[in-house]
Structures are given as C-alpha cells and as structure tokens.
C-alpha cells in the first residue's frame, strides 16, 4: 500500500523515555490567550453590526423614503437571523473545522456590508441585513467551540469570561461609533467601516488562528492530511514552538456528521432547556430595556441622540467588567465545589479534570456554575426611570452599569455550564442559546414600547423578570 493511500493525520509529539499523559491541549498559556483574544474579537462583529446601526435609523428612513416603523423591522429581521444562522454554522464548525466556518461566515459578512453601503431601496436593505446577520451571528457559536477545544473545565470560566467581555465591546462603543459616523459621513459610512474592519480582521484570523477542532487535530499535536490545507496552517507553526513531550500521540476525537438539528435537540433537552429559556427571557427583557432607553431618555430627560448614545457606555463597561470578574469567580467556585464533591464521593475512581465526557454527570456542575444569579438590576432600572421628575438621570445610568454587569455575569455562567455538559457540541450548545435568546428578543423589542406606554416601565420589567423566575 502506498504512503499516500489512507493518509493519516501526522503527530508532532516528541517521544520520551518516560511515559507521559497527553495534555488536554498543547497550547501554552500565552497561546491560549492569543487564541481567545482572536475569537473574542471575531465575536464582536455580531453586536457591532446590530448596535452601530441604531443611531442611523431615522436618517435611513428619511433617505429611503419609508417610515421609521418599517426601518425598525430591519432590526427585528436581523435578530431573527442572528438566532437561526448559528444553528447551521455551529454544527458545521463542530465537524468540518473552526477555520473553514470562520472563513465562510466572514466572506458572507464582507459581501453583505459592501452591498448595504450601496443599497438604494428598502426591500434590498432588509434582505441584505438578514444576509449580514447570517454572516456575523455565528462567530459567537464558533468562538465558544474554540474555547471548548483548548480549555479544561477548570479553565472554562476564566476564558469564557474574556470571551463574553469581547461580546460586550459593541454595547460600550458601537452606538457611539455609529452616531459619529452617521452624523459626519452619512449612514452608508457605517457599512464601509464594517467592511474594512471585517476584511482586515479576516486576514489576521487566517494568519494567526490555528485549527482547534479535536476531531481534526486532537489536542493540537496532530496535523490533518494534505488534502485539508486550511486546517494545517498555521497549526504547523504553533507545533514548532511547543515544548510538551509525550510518550505517545493522543487520540483524535470521534468524527461526526454535520447535525443541523443538534442545537434544537440541545434546546429541548432536560439538562439545558430550563436554563436556556431562563437566560433567553432575561436577555430579551434586557434587550427590551436597551431598545426602550432611546425613547425613555429622550422623552423623560430631553437628551439628544449623541447624549443618549453616551449613556450606553455605562451598560457596556459594566458588562465587560462584570464578565471578567465573574469568569474568575466561576473558576474559583468550580475548584472549591469540585474539591468538596470529590472529598464526599464514595466512588473508587476519580474522574480526570481533563476528561470532557458525559461520564462525569454526577458532579454538580449546575451548582458550581449557577450559584450566583442576578435578579435585581433590571428592576432598579425600571423603577428609577419611572419617576424622572424625582430621580436624577445619574441613577438610571448607574443602574444600567449594574444591569450590564449582572446580566452578562449570568450569561457567562450559563454559557460556561453548557460548554461543560456538551463538550463535543460546544458550538452547537452556543447556537442553541443564541437561537432562543435572539428569537425572544426579536419578539420583545417589537412590542416593548406599547407595553411600557400601557403599564409603565417598572411594571413591564417586573413582568418580564417574573416570567424568567417561573421558567427557572
């Protein structure tokens, strides 16, 4: 049989005389940080493409000669496809590889941005916004998969905290950038900015991000066959830098078929459904409050568009700070509760921390990850902004900082938990969360203002939070 027949992935592990257990990942701490920074930056595009667009809505409506209500539907359509698209690209990345999935999604996004910058009518605008969402939304699911590939359970919290912080950068600065671009260069400049940003980043990603899918490269020490050059580079360069010495190469994870229905099965599974729907409802209420902030701050405190955009910085900064701290707390909580659980365990064999399989279901991951759930921040926002004549504007702005902190803390905990319990479908698990929260947010943001007008901000938010408690 020739060497080219049945070509197997090549191992670059260095043999030693003493046996050594293969590490979960060959990437060292600095390399993991680089990888997480890259995928976190990639994940910002979904939020940027959504939030940066808000300040330009009135201008777009006027330029295209349609009502503001119709232009608002482009936000709803974006959220719908933001929920659906990862259900396709997440499973693809779990089977075909992270790099190929990233490349396809960014090419779609770049093309959509160019077309949006040149659009002349409303029908084209709404179709292209759906296409843009299809390209950008999946970066979150793929990034979650990458982190699951290279980190152990004990590391998930900290690295997922960094990843979640990256997701909130658009909340902090997207609206400000969008307002500045729309006000100075016109609304089309927003899409040219996104096109240039995404094209440059795609080049950086292709040069620096190695393939991490464990069914292709195991712990990073295996090279895929020559027929898959996309997965081979730059992994070869990383392998030349490693100092890990192994007695034997690790085994590749089992190859799977693309399972488009996988995220939907996770969504309705008994282990995931309660917390996913709780997060989805909480996220929808949070997004409804953010959407309502434009009208509420303008009507009740007489702020200009630029001033309103600046108020969102508090929410974004709170989100980033909160998720960074929460990630560290999750890791400390995990180690403490794991130690306590193992001390009380009566089993004869201890599960390895690097064993990412379902055989560890006895360990109370839910308790370790979800002990601290935020419940009060949205209520504070709703009831403080309810009375603008007696409550100074600084109070609701401060509560948006707390809202961002607590909402993303909960999101970080739940996402980390799902990566724990679905290690071989980490991108699919993230896609299931995205599906639920974006679809609920799309519905919620479409009727939030009529509800607030009917019952008031405080009561409306109370109802949303209470529904979340019932689901949990």
From TrEMBL:
Residues 35-472 form the Major facilitator superfamily (MFS) profile domain. Keywords: Membrane, Transmembrane, Transmembrane helix, Transport. It comes from Aspergillus cristatus (Chinese Fuzhuan brick tea-fermentation fungus). The chain crosses the membrane at residues 33-54, 66-88, 159-183, 189-209, 275-296, 308-330, 376-402, 447-471. GO terms for cellular component: plasma membrane. Coiled coil: none annotated. PANTHER family: MAJOR FACILITATOR SUPERFAMILY, MAJOR FACILITATOR SUPERFAMILY (MFS) PROFILE DOMAIN-CONTAINING PROTEIN. GO terms for molecular function: transmembrane transporter activity. Signal peptide: none annotated. This is Major facilitator superfamily (MFS) profile domain-containing protein. Pfam families: MFS_1. It is found in: Membrane. Its main location: membrane. It comes from the Eukaryota. The keyword Nucleotide-binding does not apply. SUPFAM superfamilies: MFS general substrate transporter. It is a multi-pass membrane protein.
